[in-house]
Design a protein that fits this description.
Helix 3 packs antiparallel against helix 4. The protein is built from 5 helices and no strands. By secondary structure, the chain is mainly alpha-helical.
Length: 120
């Protein structure tokens, strides 16, 4: 079960690296605009906000990778903390921005968190 948990944590970290790239570097390109259906002028106007949001996603990914690399009990605590942050951010995003964030961010984070806790 520990291997499954670690793979899920790694996938959630990879998802957040992908989101970082979309929000920080591709926001004004076709893939970035398609994420929210923004016109080029709206994508240009919101690019600084998206870059800031992307940076926070990078922090989540870094924390998850730290949790995978660190020995327990630090690694376990880091995985639980950062996965909890992912779930909270996903729920908040679903409530304030778009419901699909619940499935795209909160659900993977919750599944990984459950696996980490079960593997303990």
């Amino acid at each position: 079960m520990e291997t499954v948990a670690n793979v899920l944590v790694g996938l959630v970290a990879a998802l957040h690296v992908y989101i970082l790239v979309l929000e920080m570097f591709l926001w004004q390109s076709r893939p970035g605009r398609a994420l929210h259906g923004f016109a080029p002028d709206l994508a240009r106007a919101t690019a600084p906000l998206a870059a800031n949001q992307g940076l926070y996603n990078g922090f989540l990914a870094a924390g998850l990778l730290w949790g995978l690399a660190a020995a327990d009990p630090t690694g376990f605590a880091a995985r639980v903390f950062f996965l909890s942050c992912v779930v909270v951010a996903g729920v908040f995003g679903a409530v304030t921005a778009h419901r699909r964030i619940l499935v795209a961010q909160a659900l993977p984070g919750a599944l990984a968190l459950a696996a980490v806790l079960i593997a303990r």
